[in-house]
Amino acid sequence: MNICVRNRFIRSNLVSNLCRLSTAPEVEQNEQVVLIDDTEDVQAKEAEIEKKRNKSGLSPNHYNILHDKRPYDEPKCLAHLTVKYSRKMYGKYGVASGVNPSLCWPTKEEIQERKEFEAVAFPFTIKEMMETARKKREEEKLKIDQREMELAAKFAKLDQWKKELNDKINKKAAEVQSAKQKKERLVEEVRRHFGFTLDPRDQRFQEMLAKREKEQKKLEKQARMEAKEKAMIAKLQQKNIEISDKPSQ
Q1: What is the sign of the dihedral through the CA atoms of 86, 90, 93 and 99?
Q2: Smallest Cα–Cα separation from 190: which of 165, 173, 213, 169?
Q3: C-beta separation of 189 from 212 below 8 A
Q4: Do 223 and 230 touch, CB atoms closer than 8 A?
Q5: Which residue, 69, 132, 127, 65, is CA-closest to 98?
Q6: Residue 93 class from Cβ within 10 Å (0-12 exposed, 13-18 middle, 19+ buried)?
Q7: Rounded to whole angstroms, how far apart are CA atoms 187 and 180?
Q8: I want to staple 61 with a disulfide (CB 3.0 to 4.6 A). Which of 20, 52, 71, 142 is the partner?
Q9: Nearest to 217 by CA among 183, 193, 191, 188
Q10: Model confidence over 109-123: pLDDT tens digits?
Q11: Do residues 50 and 69 lie in contact, with contact meaning Cβ atoms separated by under 8 Å?
Q12: Directed axis angle between helix 126-156 and helix 158-194, to 10°?
């Protein structure tokens, strides 16, 4: 009976030791998983704290721009995947943008396209462009010199033009005064014709005034014709004198 109890005791100890050895790695593995989960929780908490520190209320992209950081860590639209946008980010934020600097250099295709564009947009060489610019400057200088000469010539004639303008104004004023005096003289002649004071708005006065004006115009026309004839005769006489003064051949 004692032998049976001892064997049973030894067997139970052996089973318990084996179970303890088999469960030990599982406990260690579970402890490692728990540690990883704790790390993620800590990072999440730090991110939450950092978010609460942002009292400005700005969106993440605007907040980054305010602090001279790249607006987006990940592309948000197709434009963010272009080479142009990447070059822009590198040019503004440098190495911190995370862009490969090799993208900033043009490709062979871009260089070829640029050469073709410049061949069409700028077909002349630098020497030809300099020569064209020089000729343009000379033409502009020549125009300025000509303009200055014209202004100087006109300025020299300024006094003469003033005198001509004043003479023209005086002549016009004299003609107006003469016409006014002529009108008054005709009105006075009509009044003397009737022998009594008559209203200028009267029909008889108007008819007689028109008649006198017509006669006056006729006399003036005749005087101009006589003056023209006299001038022509004087011109012919002067021409005859010049012909007679020439030595005979």
Answers
A1: positive
A2: 213
A3: yes
A4: no
A5: 69
A6: middle
A7: 11
A8: 71
A9: 183
A10: 999 999 999 889 888
A11: no
A12: 40
| pLDDT for 13 | 56
Give 246's Cβ-side CA count (13 Å radius). 7
User: Token digits for 163?
Assistant: 């005198």
Residue 122, C-beta contacts closer than 8 angstroms, at least 6 positions apart? 129
Q: What is the pLDDT of residue 141?
A: 96
Reported residue count of the chain is 249
Measured CA to CA in angstroms, residue 48 lies from 44, 53, 63, 66 at distances of: 6, 9, 16, 20
Per-residue pLDDT, 116: 92
Low-confidence spans in the chain with pLDDT less than 50: 1-9, 21-36, 249
At 2 the pLDDT is 40
Q: What residue type is 152 in one-letter code?
A: A
Specify the pLDDT at position 29: 46
- The predicted pLDDT at position 169 comes to 93
